[in-house]
Amino acid sequence: MAEEIRNVVIMGSGCAGLTAAIYAARANLKPLVLEGHEPGGQLSMTTLVENFPGWPEGIQGPELIDNMRQQAERFGAEVRVGHVTAADLSQRPFLLTLGKEQLRTRTLIIGSGASARWLGLPSEKALIGHGVSSCATCDGFFFSGKPVAVIGGGDSAMEEALFLTRFASKVTLIHRREGFRASKIMLDRVRSHEKVEIMTDTVVDEVMDVEAKEVTALKLRNVQSGKVWDYPVSAMFLGIGHTPNAAMFQGVLESDGDGYLQTRNYVHTTVPGVYACGDVADRRYRQAITAAGTGCMAAIEVERYLEAEGH
User: Which helix (H) or strand (E) holds 67?
Assistant: First the structure.
């Protein structure tokens, strides 16, 4: 029996991957979607999504993802658990390794996303979506008129802090060191903003209150003096960056210094027939709607590529 060759394999089951699956399935390409190690992407860890068009009252993140998955499957997409550990893009069809299994595909859409960096506290994990967030643009509005904290010392943290001043009554920027990695211009903007207070040499030991299912305070510790105290806030925003889920393509596809895949003409990678969409290639916007848009683009490019190849 001849080995099955897929028309298109889509890595990732977030907004980018599932939108690509909807378009590819409607083009009768019978796409295979591999869920990866974070099924549903970052939206699966989000509560209310109010900025996705078409949902005037908002929609729960997991519900939005489930709707997209059902829509893709309705048109013939196959969604299954699977994590690509290696990819040989030097041969045609491409060869993907999933643990002990191997797949061959004529085209590949990489929508594997980027994982937010967390502090690693159990209380933090328990309160994700309940006052702990890695996206000020997504969740800042919910904390209008309330005090919030931002963790980090780079430009990402500065951007989050400045954005949150539009809503919060006060923004406390907490950084574990005295010095900052942020650019001087961004740091100066934060330092001069009347709503922002900066705490250096300080770390978060615990997020409170897990039992109440809401953030009420942070247990802080000064790393120099050892002093520990509770600091009342209504939300904690992580500004310590994201890690693109593209380790298996390092040295195979062009990427920037932080591992984000580089694209040309929106979604084309350096290898013909391989496309990147969503947060794995987007360090600037990182929104559900922009991920969905590039997922659409990638699927359309796949359809055109296969048609030109005679498939």
Answer: helix 61-74
How many residues would you count in the chain? 311
Type of residue at 239:
G
CB atoms within 10 A of CB 230: 11
3 state DSSP class of 165: coil
Whether the CB-CB separation of 248 and 161 falls below 8 Å is answered with no
Instruction: Tell me the three state secondary structure of residue 108.
Output: strand
CA distance 294 to 290: 6
How many whole angstroms separate alpha carbon 216 and alpha carbon 237? 13
Q: By three-state DSSP, how is residue 265 classified?
A: coil
pLDDT at 1 over 70: no
CB atoms inside a 10 Å sphere around CB 258: 11
Percentage of the residues of the chain whose pLDDT score is greater than 90? 80
Dihedral (C-alpha) 275, 280, 281, 283: value to the nearest 10 degrees?
170
195-204 per-position pLDDT tens digit: 999 999 999 9
Q: Which residues are catalytic?
A: 135, 138-139
Tens digits of residue pLDDT in 193-238: 999 999 999 999 999 999 999 999 999 999 999 999 999 999 999 9
Rounded distance between C-alpha atoms, residue 76 and residue 27, angstroms: 10
Which amino acid would we find at residue 75?
A: F
SS3 call for 17: helix
Cβ neighbour number for residue 235 with a 10 Å cutoff: 26
- For the whole model, what pTM was predicted? 0.82
